[in-house]
Structures are given as C-alpha cells and as structure tokens.
Amino acid sequence: MNENTKKKILGILLILPAFSLTMAVVALPIVQAVILSFTDVDTGVFSLVNYQKLFSNVHAVKNVYYTLHIVIVTVVLTIIIAYPLSLYLSFGKSRFARMMGKLYLIPRFIPGIVAVYAIMGIVRDSGALNRLFMQVGINLKPSLMYTPQGIVLANLWFNIPFAAMLISASMSGISPSLLESAQDVGASSFRIFRKIIFPLTAKSALVAAVFVFMGNIGSFTTPFLMGANAPRMLGVALYQEFSVFYNPAAAAALSTVMFLLSAAAGGVYIYSMMKEENWQK
Fold first, then answer.
1. Tens-place pLDDT, residues 65-87
2. DSSP string covering the chain, please?
3. Could you tell me which CATH class the domain 57-280 is placed in?
4. Domain map of the chain by residue range?
C-alpha cells in the first residue's frame, strides 16, 4: 500500500464519525419524512394522496404563495440594503464607518425570540414608537403586527448583518493596488465599481441571497409571533399540522415541499460554484 492510499484511508476514517452522525440525525429523518409523505396512512401503500390533499386545499396553497412572497421580498430588500452597506464598511474611511464595521454584527448575537419581542414592543400600535410620537401629539399607529410587512421588517433585522458580512468578506479580498491602478488611469468611481468591484463581489451577493432564502423559507419564531392566523408561513403551518392537528403524513408532505424549495435555491448556489470552477479550469 503506497503512501497516498494510506493518507486517503486515514482521511476517510477521520471524517467517518462526523459523516455517520450527520447521516443519522439529518439524512435519515429526511428520508423517513419523504417516505411518509408518499404513504397512505389508511392503507400503508405508496400514494400521492397526501400531496393531493395538500394542493387541493386552498388555504395550504395560499400558505405556499404567502411564504414565497415574504421570503422573496426579504431576500430582495436584504441584498439592496446589505450591498451598499458592505461598500460603505469596506471602503469608507471615516470614523463612523470604522465604528459601524465593529457594531453591525451585534444583531447576530441577540437570541431570535428576544429580538422579535423587542421589535413587537416597538412597532405594535401601543408600543414604544407610538408612545414616543404621542409626546408631540401624534397618535402614530404603525399597524405592523400580524402583517407581512411586520414579518419582513423583523427578517431584515436578522438577515442584513449576515448578508453584509458575506459580501464584505469578498470586498475585503479586492486588492487596493487594483483600485489604485484604475484611479491612476482616470477611471471614475462608478466605472471602478461597475468594472471591478461588482464583478468580483456579485457571486458573494448571490450566495448571500441563497442563504437568506433558505434561512427564511422555514422560519418559525417570527411568523408565529408576528404573523396572522391565515394565511400562515410554512414553518407555522408545519408546526400546526404536526403538533396541533397531529397529522404526521400531511406534515411530511409539507416538509418535503419546503425541502424542495430550499433545494431549488441550493441548486442555484451549486450551479454558480460549478460555473466558477469551469471558468478557472
């Protein structure tokens, strides 16, 4: 046995425990849920009855559209806000930019349920924002509780720092000498952004968008506390199917749909990685 073969075997043995644990706690439950979603609980045979019930239910279909609407709006607004913020943090020279570069990740360290309750305390019609404006005689009612806008607002709190962190990391990898050379030959700031910065960071923005999409498609805490009773986001609908109505087969079908939506976003990420690898080759 040559040295390379020994190293390969050693590498496989080292990752085998972690791989086995991942398969046991992640892959196996996914496979079981998919099998259950294609099983008729009354007869125990393969069937599409769970999906037929899911997509023939008007409320369930509305839940899917409602979830996609909120998630897509969250993704778009997150990238629109996070990208300029990353530009400012990466290339800004002011003291405020340096301070923001150290503080913008604070929301990532606040527990989700604590942040949601804090947001609710501010934006509810009788919350802190209303009481603040009442001091000057304005009865401001944001009307953000139990609305898609309120859920999106809370989602932005969590996702903008995360997306800005990913995009800023790619911007920090741009060589200053490259930008200085462009300035030396008379390129304007907008031309430098369009020809150098954006092409080098667009993939990171896409990756951030994919991760934001996947992180919000099954979100539970925010829509459970701030969402309306109907329609509901898929995470809340899944919880109710399994824990309230105790319908494991319907919950399995719904979770499979959520998995497919996430897989579609993951496919975009994998495709972008493969394109880059082919370009490098």
1. 999 999 999 999 999 999 999 98
2. --HHHHHHHHHHHHHHHHHHHHIIIIIHHHHHHHHHHTB-TTT-SB-SHHHHHHHH-HHHHHHHHHHHHHHHHHHHHHHHHHHHHHHHHHH--SHHHHHHHHHTTGGGGS-HHHHHHHHHHHHSTTSHHHHHHHTTT-------TTSHHHHHHHHHHHHHHHHHHHHHHHHHTS-HHHHHHHHHTT--HHHHIIIIIHHHHHHHHHHHHHHHHHHHHT--HHHHHHS-SSS--HHHHHHIIIIIS--HHHHHHHHHHHHHHHHHHHHHHHHHHHHHHHHH-
3. mainly alpha
4. 57-280
